[in-house]
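BUG: 3D viewer hangs when loading the predicted structure for this chain

Environment: internal workstation, default settings.
Expected: structure renders.
Actual: progress bar stalls at 90%.

Input used:
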Amino acid sequence: STQSRSSAASDVYKRQAGTGLSTETNLPTTWSATTNVKWQIDLPGRGNSSPVATKNRIYLTAQTEDLGLWLVAIDKHSGKLIWKKKLTSGVLAASGEENLYAHRHNPATPTVAASESQIWAFFGTGDLFCLNAAGKQQWHRNLVEDYGHYDIAFGMASSPRLWKGKIFIHCATKGPSYVLALDVRNGKTLWKKERNFEAKEDGADAYSSPVVWQGLNQEELIINGKDHLNSYDLNTGEQKWISAGLKIKSPYGRIIASPAVSTEVIVQCAGNPGGGGMGRAIAIRPGGNGDISQSGRLWSIERTAPDGATPVCYGDYVYLVRANGITICADLKTGEKLWEERVARGEYFCSTIAGDNKVYVLGTTGVCTVLEAGPKFNRLAENKLPGVFYASPAISDGVLFIRSENALFAIE
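Structure tokens produced before the viewer hung:
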């Protein structure tokens, strides 16, 4: 029926919004390298782009040792390689010390966007490619050539956001800083807005991605970086509201985590490398107009906020994972801490995801802790896969897709 088709389309858009939530049930709780692995596949190179699922495929990117940058298409059900395409080659433009990022990060960090018929692959070189499902290139742009060289400590890492015929790109550096809307059909610029807010030192840099906030009869593009969080009209680029409040008292303070959104609250974290008691998380009431730095502020958590891991808003709560694995569950509307526990040891940079009354917390060592969602701490399981993990997991058709730097696992 028309209503069913409309509902299905709406569900697709919700999955593309960047909330980190799944409405599916019967999601996996326990697994290991030899248990509940539906399939696994070695990738042609290294990268940290998260897996993206369509009806029958998984797409991701990787970089080979010769610096080639590849887009890979995998059968979602069997794990068989459908095709792989070398699109370009290159390195990150980064002003920071190489030892601080090279072991974590390369141009294949941004996650692709995909529909059933097209894939948009963005790389840290500034190259944006559109391919069809057969792997044939439709168009290509280099945003560095178009809008200026990146001047960012550890290299471009923001992922594109696909939404209703547009691709949105966020750039926040000490040099060019803007948000951009492109036509998915041909890559032409629909609108571009500068984001030249005052921010000092590394505070000018951001590694976060755009998300779409869906309120009651409203949709807005949410962007963070340069010590600010703000909203744009998806069609015109007109700024709707802006909030300051993300400045960190450190020359190394910057934003990695993307906005965590719910219908009534947006939570944003600003971190400091190594912690140092300087991170913070703020909660904003969205849907306003103008400067809502004070009027829109609901609460803040000081000093103990995540650095790189995007939180997830699930039900009445928000789950925030610090770089050392200490996880906070807070009331979404008041910020009251309901529990604070170390889920495991190691480093944590993957975004937190949730669904089926479960919260998934994945660390770089491959340990994924599954928590029961709710105001009381309950560890349902602790699972481990081999490899190094910086990419965020994805959920599709009851399967959890987890990507290490060099392999992809399907957990059922």
